[in-house]
Design a protein that fits this description.
Phage tail protein beta-alpha-beta fold, 16 strands, elongated, disordered C terminus, Immunoglobulin-like, four-stranded antiparallel sheet
Length: about 280
């Protein structure tokens, strides 16, 4: 008897609440997750909000003092998207939260994202010597990057929106370094890089000329020039550099040359110095 009454009670629950079977229960964010067809176009923030309210019947509640409603926003890639996705694209430069108020109202809390300076130094770990030309990169969670290099004093500076970034530093001959940086105000970061150790194979250097070949280098095959050339070079020497006393004695093998010489004096005058230049003449057999 009891089982009969229990079966009857369950059957009545099914009749009274048919929606409890085989139907997905909607979440509180249903209004924000409604789909809307958007075409690629440009409009102010206020115009976009008015268009959303007109197209979906959703009431948007926000504080106009916290937003630049006259800023122009362009949707590059149109298509089908949720209302929340469209609002976040329109307010891409803001930190925002969305709350749903039944039946069809969205409350938007938005705050303009501030930008701050991230500066610092790059130096060698052991010697603390500043490194010039080190590559410094800040990368956000979406993969967007800000890049710069350190100056002659090893200092770098980047201006980025607030948020969490990965700071990457690299320099030729040093191990690269990465660290997480939370930017909520101007901050200063010191980065120290470790030098890399390189090992090279042993190198043997050998002379390209043998010892017995060095004897072939005699004065006779190095350079020779005639007496006329020698005299011509002496005549063009500047007279004011040094006191010159020239006496030329020409020697030839096996006394094949009779040498007679005489002295010829040439006088040059420079301020406060009187210099005599002596030359000799030669007679060839």
């Amino acid at each position: 008897m009891k089982s009969k009454w229990l079966f009857l009670l369950l059957w009545m629950c099914v009749i009274v609440r048919p929606e409890a079977w085989g139907q997905e229960v909607k979440s509180a964010n249903t209004v924000a997750e409604e789909w809307i067809q958007v075409s690629s176009s440009s409009a102010t923030v206020l115009q976009w909000f008015e268009w959303i309210e007109k197209s979906t019947g959703i009431v948007l509640s926000y504080n106009p003092a916290q937003m630049e409603l006259g800023d122009v926003c362009r949707i590059e890639h149109g298509g089908k998207m949720t209302v929340e996705t469209l609002v976040r694209r329109i307010l891409s430069g803001y930190q925002m939260k969305i709350a749903v108020v039944p039946p069809r109202k969205l409350v938007i809390h938005a705050r303009k994202i501030e930008s701050y300076d991230v500066s610092g130094t790059v130096s060698e770990e052991d010697s603390e010597e500043r490194l010039y030309g080190a590559v410094v990169t800040l990368e956000d969670k979406d993969g967007k990057q800000w890049n710069t290099i350190s100056n002659g004093k090893g200092i770098f500076r980047l201006h980025v929106p607030e948020g969490t970034y990965t700071l990457k530093t690299s320099y030729m001959g040093y191990a690269p370094q990465s660290q997480s940086v939370r930017v909520t105000r101007d901050c200063f970061v010191r980065t120290c890089l470790k030098p890399l150790l390189f090992e090279i194979e042993e190198v043997t250097v050998e002379s390209g000329k043998r010892e017995n070949e060095l004897g072939e280098l005699t004065p006779s095959n190095l350079m020779a020039f005639s007496g006329g050339d020698l005299f011509s070079q002496i005549w063009i020497l500047p007279g004011g550099l040094l006191p010159w006393l020239a006496r030329i004695l020409w020697l030839m093998e096996e006394d094949m040359m009779k040498i007679s010489y005489c002295w010829m004096a040439c006088r040059f005058f420079i301020p406060d110095i009187s210099v005599r230049f002596y030359l000799c003449s030669m007679e060839m057999p």
